[in-house]
Amino acid sequence: MCRHLAYVGPATPIARLLTDPPHSLFRQSWAPRRQRYGTVNADGFGIGWYAEGDPVPARYRRAGPIWGDQSFADLARVVRTGALLGAVRDATRAGADGEAAAAPFAAGAWLFSHNGAVLGWPHSLAPLTRGLPAAELLSLEARCDSALVWALVLQRLRTGDDEGRALADTVLEVAEAAPGSRLNLLLTDGGTITATAWGDTLWYLAEPGRGTVVASEPYDDDPRWQEVPDRTLLVATRTDVLLTPLKDPHDRQGVPDHEDPHHPMASARPKEPST
Hints:
The chain has helices at 14-18, 25-28, 70-78, 134-138, 145-158, 163-177; strands spanning 3-13, 45-49, 58-62, 80-88, 105-107, 110-117, 182-188, 193-197, 203-207, 211-215, 226-227, 232-236, 241-245. The strands form two sheets. The chain has a seven-stranded antiparallel beta sheet with strand order 3-2-4-1-10-9-11. A six-stranded antiparallel beta sheet has the order 5-6-7-8-12-13, covered by helices on one side. The chain has one domain: Aminohydrolase, N-terminal nucleophile (Ntn) domain (Glutamine Phosphoribosylpyrophosphate, subunit 1, domain 1, 4-Layer Sandwich). The longest helix has 15 residues, at 163-177. The chain has 275 residues and is α+β, with helices and mostly antiparallel strands. Mean pLDDT is 89; it is low at 253-272. It has six helices and 13 strands. Pathway: Amino-acid biosynthesis; ergothioneine biosynthesis. Keywords: Glutamine amidotransferase, Hydrolase. Residues 244-275 are annotated as: Disordered. Catalyzes the hydrolysis of the gamma-glutamyl amide bond of hercynyl-gamma-L-glutamyl-L-cysteine sulfoxide to produce hercynylcysteine sulfoxide, a step in the biosynthesis pathway of ergothioneine.
């Protein structure tokens, strides 16, 4: 379900990241190489990017397939950015939300995308809405699982959690309420990329000191691409990538008695991957 990509690094044309590579996000909309669920990502697309000197990103989203939008092709060719998040969508369920359901979702400096599906949606997550203010629920951009997951993440960010904690705790909460859900989340503020690998593929390409790409799958055959293990939190900047194992709330094996087995980062030992 869906493919997405985030980048932080030197200013570069959007096309170099999203349309030019041989297995780009553009091509992944109809021919993904490593997508485990679904085959065509034609239920909408979007990109958010940052302009120099402005912390609030711009967005361009559409309800149709990315290959049918010539305006996007022109935009990608001429616009340069040092940070972006792009996504192509395969809807979990049919709906009438259209462009509003296409990632990236946004608030302030943040851009967010969800690659996956919440099982039992919407009933499985109904209990989690009790913790959200009514105004937040009424302000949801779309009536889809990704929009609600974003609302849960955003609530944590606004109450002071850092990006890693906000994503990890949201994944735990949703995974416990809807076991078997696929929760690859992607978040950026223009300087840092935070992501989870939970039920689907996630890769990164790092050029230390210059830039980092985090994506559902590699956009070319560069041997420097590295796959992120399942049940992992990733935090990346231009200079480094940090991976932290996450604990599945339904897997209680190997957790010491003195630790809280319900927390996704229990027993986690952050490690610096080779780049």
